[in-house]
From TrEMBL:
Highest taxon in the source lineage: Bacteria
Pfam families reported in the protein's UniProt record: Sdh_cyt
TM helices/strands, residue ranges: 26-49, 69-88, 109-129
Protein's name in the database: Succinate dehydrogenase
GO CC annotation terms, alphabetical: membrane
InterPro entries xrefs: SQR/QFR_C/D (IPR034804), SuccDH_FuR_B_TM-su (IPR000701)
The species this protein was found in: Leucobacter triazinivorans
CDD domains tied to this protein: SQR_TypeA_SdhD_like
Keyword tags: Heme, Iron, Membrane, Metal-binding, Transmembrane, Transmembrane helix
């Protein structure tokens, strides 16, 4: 008894396509680990290593931190990774539970637009926040600000 394998239907090689689900899965694992480091570093620096703990957090504290390029990059990474991670998780939920294709596409477009808007606005605030606003109460601004 001999076995024969039939020839493939097409002799042209298949076009390589990006497997977005695989890359989304990998992103969720990598960003999850990075987010753990970023979130716990953020909490430790704000609550444990700050004299006064949570009671010391006010506009001056935040503005003072965001005046440092290190904390700008830290908070930008935290913002971007968290929003993309969350949006990708919500996209997965939409894929799993929304059965109507049109409604699923609408949800995913709205999800993408809201995540993009929040990323843009958050990044804008991180890099343009003025730690020493004119006319502000000196008790509320960053410690390095001079009185106006």
């Amino acid at each position: 008894m001999t076995m024969t394998i039939e020839a493939p239907r097409s002799s042209t090689p298949a076009k390589k396509r990006t497997n977005w689900e695989k890359w989304g899965w990998i992103y969720m694992r990598v960003s999850g680990v990075l987010l753990l480091v970023l979130v716990f570093g953020h909490l430790a620096s704000n609550l444990l290593f700050t004299e006064g703990g949570v009671h010391a957090i006010n506009f001056g504290f935040v503005a003072g931190k965001l005046a440092s390029p290190f904390w700008q990059i830290w908070d930008t990474l935290l913002l971007w990774l968290a929003l993309i991670h969350g949006a990708n998780g919500m996209r997965t939920i939409v894929n799993d539970y929304v059965e109507r294709p049109g409604l699923a596409k609408t949800f995913k477009v709205l999800l993408f637009l809201s995540a993009a808007l929040l990323i843009l606005l958050g990044t804008f605030v991180i890099y343009t926040l003025d730690p020493c606003p004119a006319g502000a109460d000196p008790a509320l601004v960053a410690s390095f600000c001079t009185a106006s």
